[in-house]
Design brief:
This protein is an alpha/beta fold. The chain has helices spanning 3-18, 97-107, 147-162, 186-201, 203-207, 219-222, 234-243, 286-294, 305-324, 344-356, 367-376, 379-385, 398-401, and strands at residues 51-53, 58-60, 81-90, 113-116, 166-169, 225-226, 248-249, 253-254, 261-262, 265-267, 270-274, 281-283, 331-336, 362-364, 393-394, 412-413. It is globular and about 65 Å long. 51% of the residues are buried. Mean pLDDT is 89; it is low at 1-43 and 408-414. It comes from Streptomyces chilikensis. Keywords: Signal. Residues 1-22 form the signal peptide.
Length: 414
Amino acid sequence: MTAKRRSAAVVVAAVACAVSLAGCGEGAGGAAGAQAGAEKSAPKKIPQVVRLIGDGSTAYTGAQPNLPKPERLPPGRRPPQFVVFSWDGAGEDGQRLFSHFREVARKNNATMTYFLSGVYMVPEEKRSIYQPPGRAAGSSDIGFNDVEGVAATVEQLRQAWLEGNEIGTHFNGHFCGSGGVGDWSVEQWKSEIAQAKSFVKTWRSNTGLADAPPLPFDYDRELVGGRTPCLEGRENFRAAARELGFRYDTSGVREQVWPELEDGLWDLSMHMVPVPGRAFETISMDYNFMVNQSGASTQGDPAMHGQWGDQMRDGLLAGFHRSYQGNRAPLIIGNHFESWNGGVYMRAVEEVVTQVCTQPEVRCVSFRQLADWLDAQDPRTLDKLRTLGVGQAPLEGWQSFLASPAGVAGRAAG
């Protein structure tokens, strides 16, 4: 990362985590009161082979459907352009953004990663079951839910998984700053992860919805990655994640280059992307665009809303084209289900999905699917791809550059 870009990243991240907003990693409008509203389209049937787990909140129904089979890149073949759209604190509330973006994904041949906040599976009256590290029982900086909200979120999780989307974790109480996740030990991270799993595996008991159908997956098997609140506490989280069998982490920030496998975990960090009309880049997330535009206010000058949404859309598109026409490094984008500045960032993300996911050689996938593809590649091919800088395509063309994994990496063109 260049000095100028690194400086911008640090400043924006510091501002993001210093501001006490619902932002830096909260999803679904935060607290309780989620309105259940049935999905208009007919829900997909739960697979017939069912092995209930625990109290029946979850069930093993076999391999996840609608997952592409990862294939090794043939010699001389240009890599596909991967784009990952991910959502921190995923849950369904009165805005119905979870269900909306599931529909957007379906219409545009995309799958996504939904990072569930475990407390969104816990009704307010049961909040004391959460034992956050270093905090009083029942504490949470993003609140809890109500029974109707849990039911609505469960339905979205069920449908999303059946459609091939990934259910990751944004953990639970979303504690940032002093005394927050940045201070947690490895053992405290393990406790937080265990509780995030537990809330998914016991939602029927905690809500009293004993006759509701289970989630069609074993969360112990399915949970393979996450993003830490405010991108804090990454070092100890990664140590815990490795011990627990996670496959990736997306809690960092890096430039648009090919990812690395670090001690068994893929570093699928978010990227620095251009801010059109400004002399710096920012993190590829709605929150960070907002901080650069309206500062601490989630509802800034209405006269600027349209321009701010366009700026985020165009910045993400600039990052996309930089990779698509250059080194083909995967583009990682983070979001929240929010209505900041009149909802312009939701509009921007939807427009990006619509414009990029149907283009030739583009695959809009979940983090798990990206990790599957990376695992399937010859490590020597990935090593060569990492020699390409931001926006750089092979000078001699892709066919020569990747003619043989054993060959010497060619020069790159800016």
